[in-house]
Amino acid sequence: MSSKHSNLTTDFLNSRSRVKYEDDEERIIFLFDYRKDVKASQSENPSDHAENANANDDASDLLIGEEINWRSLQKLKRENKWGVMRHPMILNFLNEQLINCAMWYTVQILMFAVFLLMLSFHILSENAVTKSLLLVMLLIFFAVLVSKAVIKKGFPENNISSWFLAALTFNMVTYSITVAYLLLPEMFTYDNYNEELKKIILWLLPIVAILSAWLNFLYILRKSPYGIYTFMMVRILKSFGHIATIWIPTLIAFSFAFHLIMRDSGIEPWDSLVIKNATVTQTLLVVLQAITKTSTMMIGEVDANDILGTKQWIPSCLVLAFEIITVILLMNLMVSLAVGDVSDLRNTAEDTLLRIKVNFIIEYLQILESYFSWRPKNVVNNILVVHKDGSYFTTKGDIADVENDDSLPDVSEKKYDVSFINPSMRMTLIERKGRPHTVSYKSCFLQLRERLDSGIPRFTGAPTYTEEKCSLWLRYAKWLIGINWTAFLEV
Fold this sequence. Notes:
Blueprint: H1 10-15, E1 17-22, E2 27-32, H2 38-41, H3 46-60, H4 70-78, H5 82-85, H6 88-100, H7 102-124, H8 128-154, H9 162-188, H10 195-220, H11 227-262, H12 280-298, H13 305-308, H14 313-371, E3 383-387, E4 392-395, E5 397-398, H15 400-403, E6 413-419, E7 425-430, E8 438-441, E9 444-450, E10 464-465, H16 472-481
Antiparallel strand pairs: 1-2, 2-3, 3-4, 5-10, 6-7, 6-9, 8-9
């Protein structure tokens, strides 16, 4: 399974892959050849190759001569070639690297979870032990952020995006605020100046600190099996941003309408805006309370007894219109949009997770190359066996038996998933030219989506491999951060 190509294209990956469908055992066996094609990479002129040997050492020995490395992954990501990234050969490489860094990811989750819990306990009951531990953890977080920034800057292949700079700035600012919350209470005891300002600062800092810790914890969980729920929150928030053009004017309109009716009733929060010697802050607070009260009424907590207690026509009609427009129509519209977004997200969640995991693996491999180059490098397992129930295992095996398989067809075998009114069916199309996307048959239209394993030649030999017993740690690593093969392959 050698090839003269060096770029990661679908044809090149297909030439380095073999597949076998065992319907009796309901599983698929993939064979991959990750070895570097030395003959293709060498120059025809030996002297030219000798001159370029030193310059290419770093690039060619990243993963002991394997075709796939973080540079090739980053190139595919930069060129937006996610169709190539979903090839089983690359997915297997990503899955192996993800399992290798499961320990590091577990440490990340535990540290951010412990940090969030300890910060919560420290806010409720301050003590020197939790304060010291929190400062140590913040120092570690700072060091990790600085290391990531240095690595990003150190490799010329990296493009520092605005999103990375925004995330780095946010973390630096929030960590600094958390450090200030831990240290300022003791510093403020040295004098008695500006006591009111100090109280406001000490009241605001823990709120920002705990919210930022919560956001960072959710951000870390994105790569876990529960990451889809984080995506749901973000997706619903984006949908709310779209409907906010209707929701916010409606909220403001009814807030002032209710306030005009109830401002002389003496019932909170419908206080009068005309308060003797009232400051601008107090006036704005009255408006904010009216808007907050109306927003709670919009989510179903109408509590209109105070308004209906006026026993007047206009307030009663206003409450009725408010219930119809906001509680019934607007809120049901928001719920239906959220349900639709969640349904769409379930279909695209694995693609979103794949993008996040690719970024994670690129950073992980860059860290290994920068700080742990002395470590022995693991060879990627080249045999993947995926069962119908979603379970899988990978191992190393001898592929010599299938390298010169004369039974392989001369034409590429394309595989498509068919969407029809009836339950989805599977069909195989063998064609020499072109890739049809729609088939018309007696006025019935079938939508064809090419499968990820399409175009991979089959093999008939039996590769030599041994299925090792899956340990508890390996099962945990697969569950925590491994690739969900059932989302990409259909056995």
